[in-house]
Write a structure and sequence with these properties.
The chain is mostly helical and 214 residues long. The chain is built from nine helices and three strands; from the N terminus they run H-H-H-E-E-E-H-H-H-H-H-H.
Length: 214
């Protein structure tokens, strides 16, 4: 007979944990994807990482949603219930050129056996992340990683908000600490460019306008 737990609060699920891919980890992930027995996964995962889109948005993407000339992906069914527009980078355009097309199929990343969107990709993903030595990497972390790439490249939080489709800026503020690191690097770059720093005296006595008491 099963045991019922009534009136006991469950531990809250922590969806705020952020995990970002490093360049080395991304390389390991792509190497594992090339060895995956799931043929569409090597296109789905890079699409997630290159656009910051949600898993459901990628799995249900249709060819008609893409304006290749205008470089816009129109996402009609998203978490906010509103239409949003994702810019298509050079990397995304190159990826979509390599995605195999199936005659009469409107879906970009269908299950090759059914030509319908995947219901779930967890088991294939779990196998790949473990092979890459990244067992703690979640699919949603690819979205976090995309945001971190943007911020570390000097893009503003406003731009990150628009691309990720956050309805409130406070959701994007979780990446503010990355922005601060980017600003520090920028400040360091400016200081390194000043030749005066190379000739700064090591001792106060060397400064001609400073009198040092004996």
């Amino acid at each position: 007979m099963g045991v019922l737990f009534v009136g006991i609060d469950l531990f809250p699920e922590n969806n705020k944990v952020e995990r970002f891919l490093s360049a080395d980890e991304a390389k390991l992930l792509f190497e594992a994807l090339e060895q995956s027995k799931a043929p569409m996964l090597k296109y789905i995962v890079p699409m997630l990482l290159l656009t910051g889109a949600r898993k459901s948005e990628v799995l249900r993407a249709r060819w008609r949603d893409f304006d290749f000339e205008g470089r816009i992906w129109t996402v009609e069914f998203n978490k906010s219930g509103k239409v949003r527009y994702i810019p298509l980078s050079d990397g995304v355009l190159d990826l979509l050129k390599r995605v195999p097309r199936f005659e009469g199929c409107e879906w970009v990343f269908p299950n090759p056996e059914t030509l319908r969107p995947f219901v779930q990709i967890f088991y294939a993903w779990d196998s790949v992340r473990k092979k890459a030595g990244l067992p703690d990497l979640r699919i949603h972390d690819l979205r976090h990683s995309f945001a971190s790439f943007l911020v570390n490249a000097g893009r503003s939080l406003y731009e990150v908000q628009k691309i990720l489709g956050h309805t409130q800026i406070k959701t994007t503020q979780r990446y503010a600490h990355l922005s601060q690191k980017s600003l520090v690097r920028a400040a360091n770059a400016a200081s390194q460019a000043l030749p005066m720093l190379q000739s700064m005296p090591d001792k106060a006595e060397a400064l001609p306008l400073v009198e040092v008491e004996a």
